[in-house]
Specification:
Layout: H1 15-30, H2 37-40, E1 45-46, E2 54-60, E3 78-87, E4 91-96, E5 100-101, H3 102-109, H4 111-120, E6 124-130, H5 144-157, E7 162-166, H6 169-173, H7 175-194, E8 200-208, E9 211-212, H8 214-225, E10 230-237, H9 249-270, E11 273-274, E12 284-288, E13 291-292, E14 299-300, H10 302-315, E15 319-320, H11 354-359, H12 367-370
Length: 405
């Protein structure tokens, strides 16, 4: 079978030639450049890659008991140290809860040595910036460069490769600070990649039964549009402050997470960013407040923890955390009102570290999350003093805050 011969020059022109001729004539006559539809078609660009699935409880550094020999967190893949905030008086300098400078935390809380000890036992240690009570650094550092420097002091001192940005209240609604934060985090990720490393970034946001609020969705958009590679969005499933419609606390959490899942799907689609194979679930986390919440009628029991863990395993959530490791124990006689949230106990009957054991079932951390070397002295000149065995009290002018989810 032979190929057909070309049409003779005197033959009828093809339909395609006629259409192309009309297109060229229209372009010449009107000066308008016409682009075929298939060149305008939007294609999703890579936006998220599923990372390790892990469980890690928050540890309230400023509510810590310095005499404890090691950081808590039995059964955790990671310990999330909370919270790094701006210094007293709105200084663009990282502190622990506005109470301890990085050096003071080493001396008063033996923090550097305890981090080294925890990592030696095989548990990853990471840091959360922000929180409900303190002032997030992006709100006070006047330039992107200053903010990069403040964040970098923490990352370098504690050799952090995964960060958590806990945005609440004023920090969440500050659009200018959000742009500054996004630019700084994108720059820090670029620096890490240039060194052949990586900086994983998690964004922790308040949620309710309808999912994330407008400010939360904007915060995600700001980071993504700045080029930040988000490892995930962690929804705080706690303190709803509204009727739960006969749902349990686990049921309320699942309702909230399902709403967040749908919101993230729409947001990534709107930004033409591709999700991992597991969809939005693969970049989501959940953080309940164990036991008695700040809202008196809300109590997250061990049965709720089991239900939420089963849901997380079914949907393959990337992360589960909890507020907090400090609270993962029964209250003693010094806590007479069980319906008032404490920073040192859960307010429900439980064995030691029971919530971590239940919420952490089925999670196995990948080596990339645990590969954190020992803390080093800050490049800004803060040397970590050796622990003497006698923890110093916090600075007298700034009393330690209470719980701060």
């Amino acid at each position: 079978m032979t190929a057909p011969s070309a049409s003779p020059s005197g033959g009828h022109p093809s339909v395609w030639r006629v259409l192309v001729g009309l297109l060229v004539a229209l372009t010449v006559a009107t000066g308008i450049i016409v682009v075929p539809w298939f060149l305008l078609r939007d294609e999703a660009t890579p936006g998220a890659t599923a990372g390790p699935r892990w469980f890690g409880g928050y540890y309230d550094v400023t509510a810590a008991h310095p005499a404890e020999a090691a950081l808590p967190g039995a059964g955790s893949d990671a310990v999330v140290l909370a919270f790094v905030t701006a210094g007293p008086g709105g200084a663009c300098s990282p502190t622990w809860g506005g109470v301890y400078s990085l050096t003071e935390a080493s001396r008063a809380l033996d923090l550097d040595r305890r981090i080294t000890q925890k990592r030696a036992a095989g548990t990853a240690v990471t840091v959360s910036f922000g929180g409900a009570r303190g002032t997030e650094l992006a709100s006070v550092c006047g330039s992107v460069g200053d903010l990069i420097g403040a964040y970098a002091r923490v990352l370098e001192r504690y050799t952090i490769t995964t960060v958590d940005l806990d945005l609440e209240n004023a920090a969440l609604g500050d659009v200018v600070a959000g742009d500054r934060r996004a630019a700084a985090i994108a720059s820090l990720q670029g620096r890490a990649r240039a060194k052949g490393s990586d900086l994983s970034v998690w964004l922790t946001l308040p949620s309710d039964q309808d999912g994330l609020g407008t400010d939360g969705l904007r915060a995600i958009r700001q980071l993504l549009q700045a080029g930040v590679r988000l490892s995930g969005i962690n929804a705080m499933t706690m303190d709803y402050g509204a009727p739960l419609a006969d749902r349990s606390m686990a049921g309320a959490a699942i309702t909230a997470l399902t709403a967040v899942h749908d919101q993230l799907g729409r947001l990534y689609d709107d930004l033409h960013l591709a999700l991992p194979a597991g969809g939005a679930w693969a970049i989501m986390g959940a953080t309940p407040m164990i036991g008695q919440n700040d809202v008196h009628d809300e109590v997250f029991a061990l049965d709720d923890a089991a239900t939420l863990n089963a849901f997380a395993q079914k949907q393959r959530l990337a992360r589960v955390s909890m507020w907090s490791l400090n609270r993962d124990r029964s209250c003693g006689t010094d806590q007479p009102d069980a319906r008032t949230a404490s920073d040192s106990c859960s307010g429900v009957a439980q064995s030691e570290a029971a919530f971590a054991a239940v919420l952490g079932r089925g999670f196995a951390v990948a080596p990339t999350l645990t590969a954190n070397p020992a803390p080093t002295a800050s490049t800004a000149g803060e040397a970590a003093a050796p622990f003497t065995g006698s923890p110093a009290p916090p600075p007298a002018s700034t009393p330690a805050p209470t719980r701060d989810p």
